[in-house]
Amino acid sequence: MAAGAGGAAVGRAALAAPLVLLYYGFSIGITFYNKWLMKSFPFPLLVTLLHLLLIFALAALARALERCRSGRPRAALSWADCLRRAAPAALSTSLDIGLSNWSFLYVTVSLYTMTKSSAILFILLFSLLFKLEEMRVTLLLVVLLIAGGLFMFTYKSTQFNAQGFVLVLCASFLGGIRWTLTQILMQKAELGLQNPIDIMFHLQPLMFLGLLPLFAVFEGLPLSISEKLSRFHEAGMLFSLVGKLFLGGILAFGLGFSEFLLVSRTSSLTLSIAGIFKAFSLLH
Fold this sequence. Notes:
Layout: H1 2-40, H2 44-70, H3 79-103, H4 109-116, H5 119-129, H6 137-154, H7 162-187, H8 196-218, H9 220-224, H10 227-231, H11 235-265, H12 268-283
């Protein structure tokens, strides 16, 4: 019996390993991409909105190609169902991503990584509240030790910025809500959103609408009078910016796909633990 349980655990780990590696590649790539892009184009909410549009277009294209290949219709929710069932997950996701990108204007990659690692505490909290995980002392200790160890590892090596710290901490809290609600959404068989492409397709419009007011309030006026914007009237500068944004959109699509795939095959807590080990590799 014990041997069978051990074999099953090894099988699950072997299945999760390539998914985790895929997530690592896109997650590390987009972390450094965002920090690099913010130096030349400091409008994180606009960047996030443009990436959401590109992700939606790529997801729609992937669905169309799969429909042509298989001849079977894809899952399609009405706007009423999207608003009732998917809006909370979409809103928390858009705010998590938007605030995370915004924080790169103020914090280093190390401080961002350290603070965002607290998401595992919020994911555990909401997973327990929504009964996705059972309360186990060993699980609680492992989560606290991992999060505490990462904080101690980076505490003296980070350049602290209060505004950036608050933005990342809020993003971590929203991330806990985001991944808990996303796991619940993907586990509802009647919705048919187990496929990462399908859930990305349905969430992006709601995420765009949820983040748009925040962009209008905090970046609308600064963007309209920015000297940086006037520089992009030149064709070379404009094509360079479009290329940078397109690259980020591809990375964002890959990251979203790998995250949803990992959550659908394992759990939101597994994704967060994988993120902790990614953080260690970034900060070592």
